[in-house]
Amino acid sequence: xxxxxxxxxxxxxxxxxxxxxxxxxxxxxxxxxxxxxxxxxxxxxxxxxxxxxxxxxxxxxxxxxxxxxxxxxxxxxxxxxxxxx
Length: 85
Known about the structure:
The chain is mainly α. It has helices spanning 2-20, 27-50, 54-84. It has one domain. It has 3 helices and no strands. α1 (2-20) crosses α2 and α1 packs across α3 (54-84). The radius of gyration is 13 Å and the shape is elongated.
C-alpha cells in the first residue's frame, strides 16, 4: 500500500514541479511519469534511510515521494532542455 501512495504522490509532485519550473516542464503526462518514477525511488530511499517507524515512516514516505517527484521531473526537464539546444 505504501508503494501505491508513493507513486501517486510522486505524480502529484512531478506536476507541482512542472508548475513551479515552467521552463523545465515536460507537459502533464511527462511530469506525471517522471514524478511517478521519482516518487517511487524517493519514497523508498527515504523510508529505508530513516527506518520504518509507523508514523515517522509514513511521513517520511510522503515527503520523500513528493520531493522525489519534483526533483526527478526537474532533472529530466533540464536534460531535455539542454539537449534541445
